[in-house]
Amino acid sequence: VAICFVSANIFVDEERNRLIVGEKYMRFGSLVVLTKQEKKANRNLMAIKKAEIKEAMETHQFPPSMHFFQAKRLIEDSEVFRILRKMPKGAALHIHEFSMASVEWLVKNVTYRPHCYFCITPKGLFQFKFADPAPQKLRSRECTEWVSLEDHRKKSNASVFDKRLLSMFSMVTKNPHSIYPNQDAVRTEFQNILFSMSGLVTHAPVFKDYIFQGLKEFHQDNVFFLEIRTRLSPVYELNGTVHNGLWVVKAYQEVVKNFQKTHRGFMGLRLIFSDSRSRSVAIVADSVRKAMGLQYHFPGIMAGFDLVGREDTGRSLYSYREALTIPVKHRIKLPYFFHAGETDWYGTSIDGNLVDAVILNATRIGHGFALTKHPLVRVYSQEKDIPVEVCPISNQVMKLVADLRNHPAASLMASGHPMVISSDHPALFGAKGLSYDFYEVFMGIAGNKADLRTLKLLVTNSIKYSSVVKSEKDFLMKVWWIKWNQFIEKLAQRRR
Amino acid sequence: VAICFVSANIFVDEERNRLIVGEKYMRFGSLVVLTKQEKKANRNLMAIKKAEIKEAMETHQFPPSMHFFQAKRLIEDSEVFRILRKMPKGAALHIHEFSMASVEWLVKNVTYRPHCYFCITPKGLFQFKFADPAPQKLRSRECTEWVSLEDHRKKSNASVFDKRLLSMFSMVTKNPHSIYPNQDAVRTEFQNILFSMSGLVTHAPVFKDYIFQGLKEFHQDNVFFLEIRTRLSPVYELNGTVHNGLWVVKAYQEVVKNFQKTHRGFMGLRLIFSDSRSRSVAIVADSVRKAMGLQYHFPGIMAGFDLVGREDTGRSLYSYREALTIPVKHRIKLPYFFHAGETDWYGTSIDGNLVDAVILNATRIGHGFALTKHPLVRVYSQEKDIPVEVCPISNQVMKLVADLRNHPAASLMASGHPMVISSDHPALFGAKGLSYDFYEVFMGIAGNKADLRTLKLLVTNSIKYSSVVKSEKDFLMKVWWIKWNQFIEKLAQRRR
Ligand SMILES: [Zn+2]
Ligand SMILES: [Zn+2]
């Protein structure tokens, strides 16, 4: 950068333009070349975007600056959002397996299946179980009495009960600021929901249907490929038989096969085997070895390994270095997709996970929220083309950031940092697929000037940074390109 | 940065250390050299800081992550805060004139003076006026009836009335999130307070006492120099006589002289003449010329020029370029201290003010909140040593950022960006001096590892980046150094 001191108006303009143009070409997506048709589509898109931002500035109701739970209806009224929903978004690379299918489906479909029982734990949480014969009473300290949902619905007001279940399975509330005063409150609720869901979604037939339903919702949102973080938790049958992780991997393969029969545009999914960052080094070492084995036996569906769970209270990646360097010691490549830097803390081992992630050779970084506080890791990951998986709504709901215009990804986008957009746990947040998160990024985080170039790069990045091999990437890109052109055609022809 | 791929544990540690140490030496303050005594003091300080952060992580009550209005009591209970209060903080470089003295003093002292009248405007706002004889009834559309405060207090419950005044003059509330749902709500309240205060503080004798009281509160907080943004608004006498800006400048000089008689350690103040960024180019051009004249006639007290008022609804610096390039055209140096980038918007003329500010050769940047979204301006201002004046509590109260660990200054500190800490409008926020803002920075923004080096650089920066000439800077530094060593002595001797 070389800027002269002001000496006359002409210099002001000249130097100013130099700075403005310089920053323009650093911005995420600015170097994307648009076709003639894309340019036409872009003009229509930007006219709508500008009008919506102008209105928001007047009404003081700008969805990205509001909590998603309060902004959701406004977002759904947005024309930009409707366009984003139709946009072929490529792949969702940061999704957790039991947060994919909407809570409504869980309540209206799953809890209405036969042999479903519930009990209330001493902490007041719902626990579920499918069983035939009925689970024994007083079977554990956890639950004193198992009640049949069918019986309970007959005896009580089923619609009131269902509403209770719906709100229990969702984090959505009208007053998020008072209900979730801090990160700990929101994390507790999050854990409680996953606990309550577990008895339902780990029942073998439900498990397969849940994944199927999840794929359906992403497919409806014009997402055609997924990479799913999975614990490969045991799955149980009605009679109590328990299946292991191997069964789960195969179940995924089966579900995808079935799904593709009726959803031709869907390109598949891959799994990122994940363990919890609260476990011992020995257990994680076992999981790493298991991941290596799965990677070897199921190279088509297994993408790599991650450590999940709340970073603020979990162990550092560094503390697992003995476990995480096992593959490299055996000269085996196990790709890592670490959650790292999903925190507001700075100068701790928590944000330090970002250093550990790149040192441990991560392929992508989950969230990377603290990345702007680590200038060398930032430069290093940009040079090495290690993208961050940005999940704005998740970060907001988990209270990492309130106004999404403040999301650190804005700064990353300003310097063209590699990234993809994902939705983490959409079902729990009342979102679906990727469109809500794309809306937040396009309208809020990427700034007013972000246009179709930004979107095109985000979407092509989701394919570029997916874990599939080069030839498959090319194929995904081709398939996406056809869909994209159809989308562009319509957007270009649109009357304002 | 050069990091090899992991090939064994030893490499993990080696490369990791390289990255960690590299980032350490980039951090704000990391290159500050500490004396033996300072090192001792630092150990004591860091032991207390660590203990307080550890406790906060356990209790989930971390003041910088909470709204200041709710965190204030917790901050005052903090030992770190008590140390920061005693720390000689040098200069406050970003302060507005009518937000210096506490609201309690305004109510308990000023509104109890004789000949004080109030009325309620059609909008329901308090308006005040000192007058003798009493102001005429129905004197303007604005106010229907002027009531004597003395009479009113006799007739009604004076303590209830005073409480009403206290809460009216302050933005503080128990429920900031519901009272101020968005930036517009909080800005409206802010403007209302300044409107209500104006009739009191622009009364000539009150004006001088207000400044005196403001200096006293900063001095009590161990701040010994101030640079005050002032509109040089007309000041009135009891009989209706009105004084102009020249009188105000002289009044400042007089107040400082008197203040120094009783407060020997106080080193003085300088004024940054400011106009509003909602006015026409012609009016601002007049103000620039006025600033040039004042600068010429009062070189000791006049520091330069700024444009104030809310950026989101104001005009861009660029739109004033005709006015702001007048000095350079006349080959006259008028230092600029522009408020710029005090916004969450990105890709607008608002955050674009940052580009304009450096192009217009700003000496310092007020807030610069959007700076992390402008990578070239960021690099340029770091190279040219143009500091940002960071006012964390102000940014939080004005709803630019909720959790202060998320303040963009954290990222700026990570790369050693030049900055000073100030408090903007402390009286309106229920703060005093600079210590509350220093607490937020030291505990929240600068991260857990920030230590006495960070504080020492922040404080010495306040002198280094002040507008005084080199010789005066050296003198300020000497005076500060004596106070600092006394502070260090006590902190080093402290028993844990
Ligand atoms: Zn995640
Ligand atoms: Zn200010």
Structural account:
- The structure is a homodimer of 496-residue chains.
- The first copy, chain A, has 496 residues and is an alpha/beta fold.
- Helix content of chain A is 50%, strand content 12%.
- The first copy, chain A, contains 22 helices and 13 strands.
- Chain A has a four-stranded parallel β-sheet with strand order 1-5-8-9.
- Chains A and B meet through helix 1, helix 15, helix 16 and helix 18 of A and helix 1, helix 15, helix 16 and helix 18 of B.
- One zinc ion is lined by residues 94, 96, 339, 366, 424 of chain B.
- One zinc ion binds at residues 94, 96, 339, 366, 424 of chain A.
Q: What is the assembly state of the chains in this entry? A: homodimer
Global outline of chain A: globular
Small molecules bound in the structure, each named once: zinc ion
Mean pLDDT of chain A: 95
Low-confidence stretches of chain A: 1-7
Number of strands of chain A: 13
Distance between the termini of chain A: 40 Å
Largest interface: which pair?
A-B, 70 and 70 residues
Helix content of chain A: 40-55%
Largest sheet of chain A: 4 strands, parallel
How much of the sequence of chain A is in beta strands?
5-15%
Biggest sheet strand order of chain A reads 1-5-8-9
| Computed structural class of chain A | alpha/beta
- Our count of helices of chain A gives 22
The whole-angstrom Rg of chain A is 24 Å
Short description:
With 496 residues, chain A is α/β, with parallel strands linked by helices.
Describe the protein's topology.
The structure is a homodimer of 496-residue chains.
Chain A: H1 9-26, H2 36-59, H3 68-76, H4 79-86, E1 91-96, H5 103-108, E2 116-120, E3 126-130, E4 147-148, H6 149-155, H7 158-169, H8 176-179, H9 183-201, H10 204-220, E5 225-230, E6 235-236, E7 242-243, H11 245-262, E8 268-276, H12 281-297, E9 302-308, H13 321-324, H14 326-329, E10 337-340, H15 353-359, E11 364-367, H16 375-383, E12 388-390, H17 392-397, H18 409-414, E13 419-421, H19 426-429, H20 435-445, H21 452-464, H22 470-493
Parallel strand pairs in A: 1-5, 5-8, 8-9, 10-11, 11-12, 12-13
Antiparallel strand pairs in A: 2-3, 2-4, 6-7
Helix pairs in contact in A: 2-22, 4-20, 10-11
The structure holds zinc ion (2 copies).
